[in-house]
Write a structure and sequence with these properties.
heterodimer, A: about 110 residues, mainly beta, seven-stranded mixed beta sheet, four-stranded antiparallel beta sheet, about 50% strand, B: about 110 residues, six-stranded mixed beta sheet, 11 strands, about 0% helix
């Protein structure tokens, strides 16, 4: 069975640009969460979606947005990129909304120059 | 608010020696607790989790952790370190009714031949 898949694996963007990161959950999983992991730190919660609705939002600016599609895949969008947005972005999926059973993808490494 | 403290950002052990990685949590009620491992340029892999069943939790690759409510701790141990255990380890907490993880800052484990 395929795990959580994220694309692209690596990305380089310029300050001020926009970026879209994609995540396909494990088949049957209806909940998707996004985390940002800055180098040398633990992951920080950005969003959680369940059944296509936003169910949780972390302490991130409005430049960050996300959505979940009818097939439960998800996109994370970041506008007006800053150097500080450089990080590994992790997607995690779960059957249900609770955090007890999340599986993480390998992440997208975003570098802002 | 939930938080996690991992004591020791870097731990070195000899191959075959005991591995002990420390984690303390802050929560008004006992949460769910997790240990994840991250290899270079990869996502997070679940080692084990505590979800209010047995206080001694056994995970993959010979790791185990004990939930101690009186000490608000969830330390990770392995009796005998292998070279393949060298990685970054993250402790995380989640409210029982919540939907997000709060991660510690991580402990980098080095195994010396």
């Amino acid at each position: 069975d395929a795990g959580v898949t994220q694309s692209p694996t690596h990305l380089i963007k310029t300050r001020g640009q926009h970026v879209t990161l994609r995540c396909s959950p494990i088949s049957g999983h209806k909940s998707v969460s996004w985390y940002q992991q800055v180098l040398g730190q633990g992951p920080q919660f950005i969003f959680q979606y369940y059944e296509k609705e936003e169910r949780g939002r972390g302490n991130f600016p409005d430049r960050f947005s996300a959505r979940q599609f009818p097939n439960y895949s998800s996109e994370l969008n970041v506008n007006a990129l800053l150097l500080g947005d450089s990080a590994l972005y992790l997607c995690a999926s779960s059957l249900q909304q609770g955090a007890g059973g999340y599986t993480f993808g390998s992440g997208t490494r975003l570098t802002v120059v | 608010a939930q938080s996690v403290t991992q004591l020791g950002s870097h731990v070195s052990v000899s191959e075959g020696a005991l591995v002990l990685l420390r984690c303390n949590y802050s929560s008004s009620v006992p949460p769910y607790l997790f240990w994840y491992v991250q290899y270079p340029n990869q996502g997070l892999q679940l080692l084990l989790k505590y979800t209010s069943a047995a206080t001694l939790v056994k995970g993959i690759n010979g790791f185990e952790a004990e939930f101690k409510k009186s000490e608000t701790s969830f330390h990770l141990t392995k009796p005998s370190a292998h070279m393949s255990d060298a990685a970054e380890y993250f402790c995380a907490v989640s409210p029982v009714t919540g939907n997000q993880f709060y991660f510690g800052t991580g402990t980098s484990l080095t195994v010396i031949p």
